[in-house]
């Protein structure tokens, strides 16, 4: 039997776990696609491609050229563009698509979250909250915070940027999760952090900063997720495997 080709849009722990679970399944040929914005800590097994597709048209062309029979979108909850493109391209190509979307974090007793809809709103909120802010948001949107003159920024990212940070008053920390609560508290103490800025990514790898903020009584500016496209959704790798079985 000819294996069915599955395009796995990845870059998350869920995508890696799914690729590893599917390795060796003779019914599927898995192609993992990574955006390439960070250096992968561990590549998934099987065929891997890196880079964008060129919008909806480019992704549709890839689906057609590679004779893709199934698509699983297991990208980051904030990777809104590729999720939208996948939904549109799969609809045009009539390819079944599933999105794996881990549950969002929910505030717990003692949390002081300040929900904001966008990164721009997060930057606007900071001057009234603190003099030192911890940005745990990656590097793609740091320029939005460039205009802040009264707030010192502590920025954590996985890989060193190719160009200098677009910020005048910033300290850069290079680290890869998962992070521990004790180390997060130590980081807050060392740098005098007074507020944390975070995307509501969900998952366990970076949740320690929220626990540390709760323990320290620090406010968290929490950027809400973009709306996911319609279609089939699951929250876990197990759910994705069940969906595949049904296909």
Task: Describe it.
The protein has 247 residues and is of the alpha/beta class. It has two domains: 4-103 and 227-246, 3-Layer(aba) Sandwich (Rossmann fold), CATH 3.40.50; 113-223, 3-Layer(aba) Sandwich (Rossmann fold). Helix content is 29%, strand content 23%. It contains seven helices and twelve strands. It starts with a strand and ends with a helix. The model has no long low-confidence stretch (mean pLDDT 93).
Task: Kindly identify the CATH topology of the largest domain.
Answer: Rossmann fold
Helix content: 25-40%
Please mark out the parts with pLDDT under 50 across 5 or more consecutive residues, or reply none. Answer: none
The fraction of residues assigned to DSSP E strands is 15-25%
The computed structural class is: alpha/beta
Tell me the distance between the termini.
16 Å
Helix-strand pattern: EHEEHEHEEHEEEHEHEEH
How many strands appear in the DSSP assignment?
A: 12
User: What is the helix tally?
Assistant: 7
**Shape from CA axes?**
elongated
Average of pLDDT: 93
Main beta sheet? 6 strands, parallel
Question: How many distinct folded domains?
Answer: 2
CATH superfamily of the largest domain: NAD(P)-binding Rossmann-like Domain
| Highest CATH level, the class of the largest domain | Alpha Beta
Radius of gyration: 19 Å
Q: Can you list the strand order of the major beta sheet?
A: 3-2-1-4-5-12
Oligomer: single chain
CATH architecture annotation of the largest domain: 3-Layer(aba) Sandwich
């Amino acid at each position: 039997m000819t294996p069915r080709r599955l395009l796995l849009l990845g870059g998350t722990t869920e995508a890696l776990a799914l690729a590893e679970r599917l390795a060796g399944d003779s019914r599927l040929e898995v192609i993992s696609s990574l955006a390439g914005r960070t250096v992968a800590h561990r590549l998934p097994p099987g065929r891997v491609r890196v880079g964008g597709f060129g919008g909806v048209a480019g992704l549709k062309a890839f689906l057609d050229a590679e004779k893709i029979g199934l698509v699983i979108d297991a990208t980051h909850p904030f990777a809104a563009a590729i999720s939208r493109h996948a939904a549109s391209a799969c609809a045009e190509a009539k390819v079944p698509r599933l999105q794996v979307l881990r549950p969002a974090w929910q505030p717990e007793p003692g949390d002081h979250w300040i929900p904001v809809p966008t990164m721009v709103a997060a930057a606007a909120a900071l001057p009234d909250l603190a003099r030192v802010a911890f940005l745990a948001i990656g590097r793609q949107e740091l320029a939005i915070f460039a205009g802040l003159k009264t707030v010192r920024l502590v920025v954590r990212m996985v890989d060193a940027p190719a160009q200098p940070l677009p910020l005048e008053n910033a300290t850069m920390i290079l680290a890869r999760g998962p992070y521990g609560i004790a180390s997060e508290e130590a980081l807050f103490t060392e740098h005098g952090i007074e507020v944390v800025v975070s995307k509501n990514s969900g998952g366990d790898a970076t949740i320690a900063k929220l626990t540390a903020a709760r323990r320290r009584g620090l406010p968290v500016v929490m950027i809400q997720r973009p709306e996911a496209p319609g279609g089939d959704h699951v929250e876990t790798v197990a759910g994705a495997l069940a969906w595949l079985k049904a296909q």
